[in-house]
Amino acid sequence: MQSFSELSKELHDKMNAAVEHTKKEFAGLRAGRASAQLLDSVVVEAYGNSVSINQLGNINIPEPRTLSVQVWDKGLVKSVEKAIRDAGLGLNPVADGQTVRVPVPQLNEERRKEMAKISVKYAEEGRISIRNIRRHGMDVLKKMEKDKIISEDETARHEKDIQKLTDEYIVKIDTALSQKEKDIMQV
């Protein structure tokens, strides 16, 4: 059985990973010009599995407002095109041979608000991950108390520590969200 300090480090590492994942999701939301990270969250149904788009082809930026995906397997071009269209990014890809061209529309006010909503969704997913990690930590504490490894008082103190850690990481996500919304809404 692990000690509380080991559990605390594990929770810290997992929460940090959740924040980093959320920031990576934010990086995929463009504020101005085309970015290859815009397609990072796109998952394609291929070979009977869900596969990240960057495992099926090269993503390039031939022009500031255009992305292109050079699909390696010609049979997957339609699947890649459909996955980009269905990803909720407001993009309308066009297949051209083995290349899928993705014109990136200029951000108008409506599109900026839509992007801001998507960033809020990513932030909420990050908060949920952090709360799930907290729940795991609390479950481990309860088991440690049940197994008489720690006392009831220690459990109560450690629960407060875990809650404090959770609050810190949720603030980190909220800060990143506020920065991303500011970037998106900036004309």
Automatic annotation (TrEMBL):
Q: Name one GO molecular function term.
A: ribosomal large subunit binding
**Signal sequence interval, chain numbering:** none
Give the top-rank taxon of the lineage listed in the UniProt record for this protein: Bacteria
Q: What is its main location?
A: cytoplasm
Q: Name one GO biological process term.
A: cytoplasmic translational termination
Cellular component terms, GO, for this chain's entry?
cytosol
Keywords associated with the record: Cytoplasm, Protein biosynthesis
- Annotated compartments: Cytoplasm
Residues of the Ribosome recycling factor domain: 23-185
Query: Hey, which family's this protein in?
Result: Belongs to the RRF family.
* NCBIfam families, A to Z: frr (TIGR00496)
Function per UniProt: Responsible for the release of ribosomes from messenger RNA at the termination of protein biosynthesis. May increase the efficiency of translation by recycling ribosomes from one round of translation to another.
Q: What is this protein called?
A: Ribosome-recycling factor
Q: Which organism is it from?
A: Candidatus Bodocaedibacter vickermanii
Task: List the top taxonomic levels of the source.
Answer: Bacteria, Pseudomonadati, Pseudomonadota, Alphaproteobacteria, Holosporales
- What is this protein's gene name? frr
